[in-house]
Design brief:
- The complex is a heterodimer.
- Chain A is an alpha/beta fold.
- Helix content of chain A is about 45%, strand content about 15%.
- Chain A has eleven helices and eight strands.
- An eight-stranded parallel β-barrel of chain A has the order 1-2-3-4-5-6-7-8, surrounded by eight helices.
- In chain A, helix 3 links the parallel strand 2 and strand 3.
- In chain A, helix 2 crosses helix 3 and helix 9 crosses helix 11.
- Chain B is an alpha/beta fold.
- In chain B, about 30% of the residues lie in helices and about 20% in strands.
- Chain B is built from seven helices and ten strands.
- An eight-stranded parallel sheet of chain B has the order 7-6-5-4-3-2-1-8. In chain B, strands 9-10 form a two-stranded antiparallel sheet.
- In chain B, strand 2, helix 2 and strand 3 form a beta-alpha-beta unit.
- In chain B, helix 2 runs parallel beside helix 3.
- The chains are: A alpha/beta, B alpha/beta.
- The interface between A and B is medium-sized, with 16 and 19 residues.
Chain lengths: ~240, ~210
């Protein structure tokens, strides 16, 4: 089955340690989203074998483990993720130029996984950053790290919804912008204060949307994913 | 001599026991719900060193091209066992995409299930007759459910391609299954396990000794 371009932009975050629940979601979202994102919670519980089981449901896997280590170690981790067949993974841009380049090198001659750099975690406020010794406005740091990632061969960066437009302008069209924290206005705000809808984010320049609870907590996750794709289409 | 396939191997011991016992095929499961599922890397490690005369079979259930290609880039397989709802057209597509022989599994409960195989004989290289899990079975898998079907349904038939019998076989019933169905080859998974997903060396040995001693 061929899925629509807007469905392919949606990456469903499956954050759970419950393998049965994860498989159930993956199965019902088959052909409804562009992939599933598995993070440290799932990976620590189930490891690469668990990732493979989710991949066998037919989904592209976005392995969100945010590698941040010495360059050699990150290169090795990317190599392992490449062998696992992931189509996208994350590293921390703050690991520095050599680490970003090593991550890209770890992929070898393969074209996937896409190497996506995290700039500043959205949970960090300016005051928090100051306490760990990082001065200056957050948007400056995001842009600095975004440029560093781009200069060292990363394929894209993770961007908060509100920075998409600025980053798209600064980094050009070739960088993939992966955007978490978007929420359809019918899904309820939860703990995300400043809401941006999926269609707003795509309009602003997002390539991929990471969406969790609005899909995973819906009574009918497949229908929720279709509804979001429909809204993106309507843009 | 009847050929034997040990399916769902997921340990070095199971591989060694299968080869030593004279298995003709070993099966690796790439299906997420199976307790026997392996990653492509694990599969590559498991098949490493297996002699060429043992066919390496990969079991897939309605898997898409991307994942199939990713797995095949890691592990070399001699036969693809399609255990889902793949249509004849899809079987043909996979055959062309991978250029690897395919075996289509047909789940059997009644006579009419057997006739379904006719639509696959032109596109598949081999047919596998497996038992259909009863509709009320809890947590039923596409295969490996330790249920049998009436082997008489397969008796006195001529198939234009090689075929295999599966479904609830074990050392205690495999001789009768071969005698009744006339099958040229048998496939076993749960029948050589101590519990779901845990292969048992002694049971593998006993199964192969029985089949090869007939």
């Amino acid at each position: 089955m061929v899925i629509s371009t807007s469905s392919r932009k949606i990456l469903c975050a499956i954050d759970t340690t419950d393998m049965d629940a994860a498989l159930g979601l993956a199965e019902c979202l088959r052909d409804q989203v562009g992939g599933v994102k598995l993070g440290t919670e799932f990976f620590t519980a189930h490891g690469p074998a668990g990732v493979a089981r989710i991949a066998y449901t037919g989904h592209r896997i976005f392995l969100d483990l945010k590698f941040h280590d010495i360059p050699n170690t990150v290169a090795g981790a990317v190599r392992a993720a490449t062998e696992l067949g992931c189509f996208m993974l994350t590293i921390h841009a703050s690991g520095g130029a050599a680490m970003i380049a090593a991550a890209v090198e770890g992929r070898g001659s393969a074209t996937t996984p896409k190497i996506i750099a995290v700039t500043v975690l959205t949970s960090l406020a300016a005051a928090t950053l100051k306490k760990v010794g990082q001065m200056g406005p957050i948007p400056d740091q995001v842009l600095r790290l975004g440029r560093l990632a781009q200069a060292n061969g990363a394929d894209g960066i993770v961007s908060s919804p509100h920075e998409v437009a600025a980053l798209r302008g600064a980094l050009g069209v070739d960088m993939d912008l992966v955007v978490p924290g978007v929420r359809p206005d019918w899904a309820g705000a939860d703990d995300q204060k400043r809401i941006m809808t999926p269609s707003d984010a795509v309009q602003a320049g997002a390539d991929f949307l990471v969406i969790g609870r609005p899909i995973t907590r819906a009574a009918d996750p497949a229908a929720a994913a279709r509804r979001i794709a429909g809204e993106i289409d309507a843009v | 001599m009847t050929q034997a396939k040990i399916c769902g191997i997921n340990s070095r011991d199971a591989v060694r026991e299968s080869i030593d016992g004279g298995a003709d095929f070993v099966g690796l499961v790439f299906y997420p719900r199976s307790p026997r599922a392996v990653t492509a890397i694990e599969a590559a490690q498991l098949v490493h060193g297996i002699p060429d005369y043992v066919s390496k079979v990969g079991l897939f259930v309605d898997l898409g091209d991307d994942m199939m290609t990713a797995i095949l880039s890691q592990v070399s397989l001699d036969l693809l066992q399609l255990h889902g709802a793949e249509t004849p057209a899809r079987v043909q597509e996979i055959r062309q995409l991978t250029n690897i022989p395919v075996m289509k599994a047909i789940r059997v409960a009644t006579e009419s299930d057997i006739t379904e195989a006719n639509s696959y004989v032109d596109v598949a290289d081999c047919i596998l007759f497996d038992a259909k899990a009863p509709p009320d079975m809890k947590g039923a898998l596409p295969g490996g459910n330790a249920v049998t079907f009436d082997w008489n349904l397969l008796a006195e038939r001529n198939w234009p391609c090689p075929w295999m019998l599966s479904g609830g076989l074990h050392a205690g019933n495999v001789a009768a299954a071969i005698a009744t169905s006339g099958t040229p080859s048998v496939d076993v998974s749960s029948g050589v396990e101590s519990s779901p997903g845990i292969k048992d060396s002694a049971r593998i040995r006993e199964f192969l000794t029985t089949v090869k001693g007939l």
